[in-house]
C-alpha cells in the first residue's frame, strides 16, 4: 500500500468471533464513509475455536459501540449472566473462592475499603471479605439483577458479563455487519501476495482462483496467523515458562439449571477444567500441560466430571501461550488467536479481540500508515497482554499445592518481575500497585491475591482513623445491607424468563 494513500478497502482474513467482531465494529464506525469497502474472507470448511464462551464486563462497552440491544443479543446467543469466576482446588484441594466482578464494600475516608477490612482482620475479626461483596453473595445464591446507576444504592456495587455461544455470537455479528455493507467472500486463502516494492500485503489469492486486494488487512486466521506471522514474518514471544499449559479439549454438554451465574474453574493434577452454563447447553473444557498429563488422561477427567451428558466428542487443541512481537506491522493488524494466546482462565480471549479492534478504530490510518501510530498501538497492546499474563500467572504461582509434579513446578517457577513487585507490595501493606493498561480492577486483584492465600502483614495507616468500635459497627451494618439485598434479588432463571429467554434451538 502507498504510505500516502487513504484507506479505501479493508480485508478481514478469517471469520469466527474475531473476524465478525472486527467487521461489525468497523462497519459501524465507517458507516458514513461510503468510499471504504469491507470484505471478509472465510471458509465454511474451517471450524471455529470455541474456547471462549465466557466474557468480562468490558464487553458491554463494545456492545455499546455497536448500539446492540442487550435483550436481543442475549436471546440470539443463548446467553446467561456471569457475576464472576469460582476457583476450585487452586490454592489446595477442596478449597474454593470466587473472583467477583463487582466492588467490595463502600469507601470510607481516604483508605480503600479493603484496608479497613484488613485492619478489622488484624484486630481479630474472622469474617471473610466475600461477605462485603454483593456480587459474590448474589452469585452464591444463584441470583441476578442488573446493577443500579444510583451510586447511593448497594446495587451499584455489582458488575456482570455474559456466557454465550461463540458460534451464535459470530452469526449474530455477521448479520449485523452484512446489514451495514460488509461483503462476505467464501473461500480458503491459498496464498498471501506481497507488494514487491513496499513489502506490504497486496492481495489474498483464494483456492478458487479469486483475488481479494486491499489497503488494510486484518488477520483473524487463528493460530496459523497466515498474514502477520507467516507472510510478514512477525515473530512470536513464548510465555510457556510462566504459563506451561499447552493443550485443551473442549466439549459441549446438556443444559444445567440456571442457578450458577458464574463460570467455574476446577484445578486438577496438571491443569484445570472450565464449566460455562448457557441457556441451551453447557460449555466445558480441559486446559492442561501435555508434559505432565496425557491427552487420554485429560479426556477422562473432562468427560468424567461433566454435570450433564456430553453432546459430542471432545475437540483437541494445541497452543503456545504468548504473543506476537508486533500486533500491527506494515498494513496488517492481527486480532484474536493470530495475535497471541493467553489461556481462557480469566475469560480474556474475547476481550483482547475487542481491545485490539477498538484501539484500531481510535488509531485508524486515514491518510497514511504512520510508523509512530503503529508503534504506539503495539506498545499499548503489548502492555495489556503483559498485564493479563501477570494476572494469570498469579493463579498458578501462588498455590500451596505440591501434590503433583505440575503444581510443584508452578509454585517454584520464576515469575515476571512486574508480578513479583505487585505481590511484594500487597503482602507488605495490602496496597495494590496499579500499572498502565491494567485490565483487571483493584477488586479483581484483591479477590485472587487473597483467594490464592497471599495475606498482607500490615495495612494502610489511613485506615486507623476509624475507632475499633465504630469500625465493628460499620462492618456489621454493611454485611447486613449486602445480605438483605442479595436475598431480595430474583433468581437468574426468573430474571431470564422475564426479560430475555431465548427460543429453544431448532
What descriptors fit this protein?
15 helices; about 500 residues; seven-stranded mixed sheet; six-stranded mixed sheet; alpha+beta; 21 strands
Care to describe what's here?
It is built from 15 helices and 21 strands. Strands 5-4-14-15-16-13-17 form a seven-stranded mixed β-sheet. Helices cover 35% and strands 19% of the residues. Helix 9 packs antiparallel against helix 10. The relative contact order is 0.18.
Task: Please provide a brief summary of the model.
With 506 residues, this protein is α+β, with helices and mostly antiparallel strands. The chain is 35% helix and 19% strand.
Q: Give the rounded overall mean pLDDT.
A: 94
Provide the gyration radius in Å.
23 Å
User: What percent of residues are in strands?
Assistant: 15-25%
Q: What can be said about the biggest beta sheet? A: 7 strands, mixed
Can you count the beta strands?
21
In which order are the strands of the major sheet placed? 5-4-14-15-16-13-17
**Helical stretch tally:** 15
Helix/strand structural class: alpha+beta
- Determine the fraction of residues in helical runs and give it as a percent range: 25-40%
Poorly predicted segments:
none
What distance lies between the first and last C-alpha atoms, to the nearest angstrom?
Answer: 46 Å
